[in-house]
Structures are given as C-alpha cells and as structure tokens.
Design brief:
The protein has twelve helices and five strands. The protein has about 425 residues and is α+β, with helices and mostly antiparallel strands. Strands 1-2-3-5-4 form a five-stranded mixed sheet, covered by helices on one side. Keywords: ATP-binding, Coiled coil, Kinase, Membrane, Nucleotide-binding, Phosphoprotein, Transferase, Transmembrane, Transmembrane helix, Two-component regulatory system.
C-alpha cells in the first residue's frame, strides 16, 4: 500500500472508528454465514470423520476472527487463507472477504498478484478436497465466479472511493482558488482606489498647499490679496470634494474600469478629458507656476472630441501628475506641456521642467496669493513616491507606454504615448 493510500485510510479510521467496527462485525458475520451455508454438504458427508470436520470448523472460526486484521494486513491474510482454503471448506467465506479487502485497499498490481494466487487455488482445491455435490469442473467454475465477483466488487468500491476523494480534493482546490481570486480582486480594488485618489486629489491638494503657504508666509499681504487667495483655496477645496465624489461614484460601479467613460460602459458621470487640459494648465498658472502649453495639432482643443474617452482621460491624468510633481520638486521652474497626435498614429503627451530651478529675483507682477519667488517657501509639499508608478500602470492598461527621467538636455522629462485608433 502506497503512502498516499495509507494516509486517507488512517484518517478515515480516526474519523469513523464506529463505522469501521460495524463494517467489520458485518463482514465477519456474513463470512461465517456463507461458510456454514456452502459447507453443509461436508457436514452431512459420511466419508468425513468427526475429527476432520472439527478441524475444518475450527479453521473457519479462526479465519473469521482473523478478519479483524484485514485492514492492517490484507495481503498477508489473503495469502494465508488461500493456503488454508486449499484443504478447508469453512474458510471460503473469510477468504472472499479477504480478497475483497485486498481489492479495496491495495493498488492494481498487488490485486493482480493475489488474484493470480487465487486462480491457482481454484484449480488445486477441488482436487485436494472434492465437493460431494459438484464435480471438478463445477467446482472450478463456481470458485472462479465467486473470486472474480469478490475482487471485481472490491475494485469497484476502490474506484468509487478514489472518485469521491478526487471530487473532494477538486472542491477544496476550487474553494482555495475562489478565496485567492477574492483576495486578488480585493487587492486590485484597493490599488484602483489608491490610484484614483492619488490622481484626483494630489493636484488639488498641492494647489491648496501652495496658496495656504503663501498666506502663512506673507503676513503683510493686503486684505484684497488675502481675500483673493482665500477664494482660490475655497474654490480648490470645493473642486477637490467634487472630484472625490466623482471618484467614489466610479469606484462603486462594479464594472467601471479606471479611465473608462460612459461610452466605455462606466456610469455617465463627468470625468476629465483632454479638452480640460487648458483649464488644468490655467489652474497651475494661478498657483504661481510658469506653464506653457503646446498644442499645434489642436488635440487639446477642438480636436479633443475625436480622442477616445479612456485615452483622453489617461492623458489628462499624466499631465496632471506631471504638473503636481513639478510643483513639488521644482516650484520655480518653467514647465512645458506638449500634446500632439492623430488618429492611427497615437496620442503623445509630454511634460518637461528643469531638474534644478534657477533662483530668480522678486517679480513685481505676481499672482495674488503666490509666495515670493526669490525666497524659500514655508514648507515642501510631501509626496507618496507612487505617482509615476501609477501612471505607468495606467498607460499600460490603455495599451500605451510611459517614460520618465532626466533627458540629455538636463531637464526632467515625462513622456507618454497612448493608442488612438484610426
């Protein structure tokens, strides 16, 4: 018996000890009843002495009691009973039970060897102890029928148990795989929420930080400048809350993918598109940044309607993250935003800014609420460090690609290409 067969059997005995006892008692009772019924002719045969009959009966009794060992030593028990059954009539019942047990608990190769031994015993036993009621041929045919029936039934029970065990294993694996899928879905949902929250709120909150820092730094600001800066803060906070509501609405939709629009099957909610790029640039300018937008092909203007919704929104998020990073890491740098492309060629967006911003003198023309440009800012805007990784993932989801890093010209370059079907 292999280790794989032994473990389930041992576990089954541990779990179902009462059932095993009941089965063993039933098997011993049936074996004894079968031996007594089929050996009646021997008991009434006058040619059989009382001593031989008693010895045969005792051999059958011991064989029935030995069936308690059939689960531990089925092969050894079957071989011993085959040898004893060659000369004893009353061993026929326990022998069939032992052959059945071998077929249930042992692999096919072992069953074949034991079956071969049983076949040899079928031809030898009628010659050693002929049955008074049957001739040799009848004895052989009856023995072959009984042995093949016991072994065949045992192999059927074994195959059924293996099938049930396979189904249980398959159900357990399916349950484990379902748990893994649920865990993976939960993880992807969390990542999706984090990505959407970062894309939507990082830009707005960085604007709030810039204007609030200006108010904290400029204690001598006029009431008009303070009012204008407070108005910008209020407007940015209101817009951040509105964006947050839109993100939550999209995330609550079960089939809405990041970057999807109403045309793609997502809820019909206002989502930023490439047409909102000029407004995004203007918001950054009002925060004190120097931003230029190059849109020679007009894809961010009147031609934005031709850009697919998911592609346009992804491009908007890329530029938004690029401006946010420039505001965090190079607040006094001049940022260049470029958008170009055509159907069939793809959409290209790029954000460039110097790695180190030059120190500039105080400018008399400064946006109200913006901090002085020749002095240090009150505090740096913190970052999570995951924005660019999220952008690369977002671009890959739409079938595009994203590159970022220092360029040969000495500035930081954020470049993305997105598919635009013809």
């Amino acid at each position: 018996m292999s280790s794989s067969d032994a473990a389930p059997t041992a576990n089954a005995r541990t779990r179902r000890a009462l059932r095993d006892w009941i089965v063993d008692v039933c098997c011993i009772s049936l074996a004894a009843l079968f031996s007594l019924t089929t050996s009646e002719s021997m008991a009434t045969d006058p040619s059989v002495s009382d001593e031989a009959l008693f010895a045969d009966l005792m051999a059958g009794t011991l064989a029935c009691l030995a069936l308690w060992l059939r689960r531990r030593r089925p092969v050894g028990l079957a071989l011993v009973l085959l040898a004893v059954g060659t000369v004893a009539f009353y061993v026929s019942g326990p022998l069939l039970v032992a052959l059945f047990t071998v077929a249930v608990h042992r692999p096919l190769r072992t069953v074949a060897w034991v079956g071969g031994a049983a076949l040899a015993q079928i031809f030898v036993a009628p010659a050693v102890r002929p049955d008074p009621d049957l001739d040799y041929t009848g004895n052989v045919l009856l023995g072959a029928l009984l042995v093949s029936g016991a072994i065949g039934w045992g192999m059927f029970v074994r195959s059924r148990r293996q099938l049930l065990e396979s189904l249980r294993d398959r159900a357990a694996r399916a349950e484990a795989e379902a748990a893994l899928r649920a865990e993976r879905t939960q993880r992807l949902t969390r990542e999706r929420i984090a990505r959407e929250m970062h894309d939507v709120l990082a830009h707005r909150l960085s604007l709030l930080s810039v204007h609030a820092g200006a108010l904290e730094y400029r204690a001598d600001a006029s009431p008009q400048e303070v009012a204008e800066a407070a108005g910008v803060i209020r407007s940015s906070a209101h817009q951040a809350l509105q964006d947050l509501r839109e993100v939550i609405g999209v995330l609550r939709a079960p089939d809405a993918a990041p970057g999807a629009t109403a045309a793609d099957g997502a809820p019909d909610r206002p989502q930023p598109t490439l047409a909102d790029l000029p407004r995004l640039v203007e918001e950054s300018r009002r925060a004190g940044m120097r931003v230029t937008l190059s849109d020679d092909a007009g894809v961010a203007g009147a031609g934005a309607a031709a850009v697919p919704g998911a592609t346009g929104r992804t491009a908007y998020r890329i530029v938004q993250e690029g401006l946010t990073n420039a505001r965090k890491h190079a607040p006094d740098a001049e940022v260049a935003v470029t958008a170009s492309g055509a159907p069939g060629e793809g959409l290209t967006v790029e954000v460039r800014n110097p790695v180190r911003a030059p120190v500039r003198t105080r400018s008399p023309a400064r946006t109200p609420g913006a901090p002085p440009e020749n002095e240090d800012r009150p505090g740096a805007i913190p970052g999570s460090g995951q924005g660019l990784a999220g952008l690369a993932e977002r671009a890959a989801l739409t079938g595009g690609r994203l590159e970022c890093g220092p360029s040969d010209a000495g500035d930081f370059r954020l470049h993305a290409w997105l598919p635009w079907p013809a």
